[in-house]
């Protein structure tokens, strides 16, 4: 069985148990003190946008590197893009679809990433673009029969049973999360790739991904506690996708929106925090280790996530499993790293595991950094009712329904992007 399936199979029971046993009672959250966002490490108060930009921002990003996601390597100088297919009448003529194979020529151990790009044919100028990774691969995002199945080892379905290769029954299986036609009709391009191309999602996955390829010791690497984890590798890949998009004349890469759901929402937040070329960041139900405050004992906890998914983070993060209060950061500080660029946080009321209220609070508290730039964040300190989107530079909604990405979510993201990208 594929190691990912083994992981899921072996952890699902404990997982269900953990989910049942987690605290879902607001009255039992208790009190906690968050690390101050606007006090620099030398004790000085940060009161201007300039102080934030020149001093505090770098400190906060450094803390996240050291204690949560690890330090990622800089961009390498060997990125190669090869267009492997173009179809100018995709989606019934609405879009041009392109496949681009990204590799690192000096790091051939990494097999590379297959970027799938849909660009609206009706555009009069280069198109703004949503950039995000998928759980199931390009053939799962699109229903089009000529999108190649991912050739790599990945969880798939063969004759209705789990297999190690992608197969036809999984085609379009993630399409409801990627409403390509809707986005194309609104004038947006969509660039996506399978996250497993960057690193397969299991504790040993790094050996078959970017992290081993970029490390001098390859699969024999002994990771230091502040070295990057899988989220770091996935986020690094999003930046390389943007490197390609900057070279494509059909794309307006200055209007790139990085988006992700759940663990890939955590990834989008980390990518948007580090790479300021992303004009907007969107977190869809990213939960613990994403938008939700770690110090709030509600739903998933640092203890739980570092036990189930240790490979997502740097080793140091596990130090805070028993005491998130000892962590020098909390997630409102991650949200703040997007400022002054707009950022959107979405929660769902049927997804208490992600701590919707904690996700809102992060966004609301991060607003003090937007305020330094004379901009408003969520615009309210009251957690809004379901299906009532709020926010200026920090958008937020709590949708009805389960942990998923739905058309409702995308409608809000389109409104938000259109509002902020309007000339
Ligand atoms: C869960 C995990 C969450 C979230 C989710 C997902 O099992 O506990 O933090 O990331 O997976 O990515 O679907």
Question: How would you describe this protein?
Answer:
- By secondary structure, the chain is α/β, with parallel strands linked by helices.
- The protein has one domain: Alpha/Beta hydrolase fold, catalytic domain (Rossmann fold, 3-Layer(aba) Sandwich).
- The chain is 31% helix and 20% strand.
- It contains eleven helices and eleven strands.
- The strands form two sheets. It has a nine-stranded mixed β-sheet, with helices on both faces. It has a two-stranded antiparallel sheet with strand order 5-6.
- Strand 5 and strand 6 form a beta hairpin.
- The radius of gyration is 20 Å and the shape is globular.
- 49% of the residues are buried.
- The N terminus is likely disordered.
- The structure holds beta-D-galactopyranuronic acid.
- Beta-D-galactopyranuronic acid (GTR) binds next to loops.
**Tally of separate helices:** 11
CA-atom Rg in angstroms = 20 Å
CATH fold-level name: Rossmann fold
CATH architecture call: 3-Layer(aba) Sandwich
Measured as a percent range, the helix fraction is 25-40%
Number of strands: 11
Brief characterization of the structure:
With 423 residues, this protein is an alpha/beta fold. It is 31% helix and 20% strand. It has helices spanning 3-21, 49-69, 138-141, 180-185, 210-214, 230-247, 263-274, 302-308, 331-336, 356-372, 407-421; strands spanning 79-90, 95-104, 113-120, 127-134, 153-158, 161-165, 189-194, 251-261, 280-284, 343-348, 394-399.
């Amino acid at each position: 069985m594929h190691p990912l399936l083994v992981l899921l199979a072996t952890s699902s029971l404990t997982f269900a148990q953990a989910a049942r046993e987690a605290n879902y009672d607001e009255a039992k959250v208790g009190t906690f003190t968050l690390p101050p966002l606007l006090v620099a490490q030398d004790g000085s108060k940060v009161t201007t946008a300039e102080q934030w930009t020149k001093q505090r921002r770098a400190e906060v990003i450094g803390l996240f590197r050291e204690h949560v996601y690890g330090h990622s390597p800089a961009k390498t100088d060997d990125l190669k893009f090869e267009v492997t297919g173009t179809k100018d009448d995709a989606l019934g003529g609405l879009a041009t679809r392109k496949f681009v194979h990204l590799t690192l020529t000096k790091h051939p151990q990494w097999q590379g990433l297959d970027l799938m790009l849909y660009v609206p044919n009706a555009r009069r100028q280069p198109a703004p673009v949503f950039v995000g990774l998928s759980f199931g691969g390009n053939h799962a995002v699109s229903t089009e029969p000529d999108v190649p199945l991912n050739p790599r080892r990945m969880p798939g379905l063969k004759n209705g049973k789990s297999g190690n290769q992608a197969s036809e029954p999984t085609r379009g299986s993630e399409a409801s999360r990627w409403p390509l036609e809707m986005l194309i009709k609104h004038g947006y391009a969509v660039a996506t790739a399978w996250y497993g191309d960057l690193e397969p999602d299991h504790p040993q996955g790094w050996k078959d991904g970017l992290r081993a390829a970029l490390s001098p010791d390859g699969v024999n690497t002994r990771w230091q506690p502040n070295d990057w984890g899988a989220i770091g590798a996935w986020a690094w890949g999003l930046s390389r996708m943007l490197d390609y998009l900057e070279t494509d004349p059909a794309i307006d890469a200055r209007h790139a929106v990085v988006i992700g759901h759940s663990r890939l929402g955590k990834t989008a937040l980390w990518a948007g925090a580090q790479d300021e070329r992303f004009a907007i960041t969107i977190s869809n139900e990213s939960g613990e280790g994403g938008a939700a405050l770690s110090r709030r004992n509600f739903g998933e906890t640092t203890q739980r996530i570092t036990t189930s998914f240790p490979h997502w983070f740097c080793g140091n993060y596990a130090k805070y499993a028993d005491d998130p209060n000892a962590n020098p950061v909390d997630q409102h500080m991650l949200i703040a790293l997007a400022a002054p660029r707009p950022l959107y946080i979405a929660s769902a009321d049927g997804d208490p595991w992600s701590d919707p209220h904690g996700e809102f609070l992060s966004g609301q508290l991060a607003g003090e950094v937007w305020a330094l730039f004379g901009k408003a964040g969520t615009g309210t300190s009251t957690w809004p009712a379901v299906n009532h989107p709020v926010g200026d530079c920090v958008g937020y909604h709590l949708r009805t329904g389960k942990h998923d990405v739905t058309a409702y979510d995308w409608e809000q993201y389109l409104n938000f992007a259109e509002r902020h990208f309007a000339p």
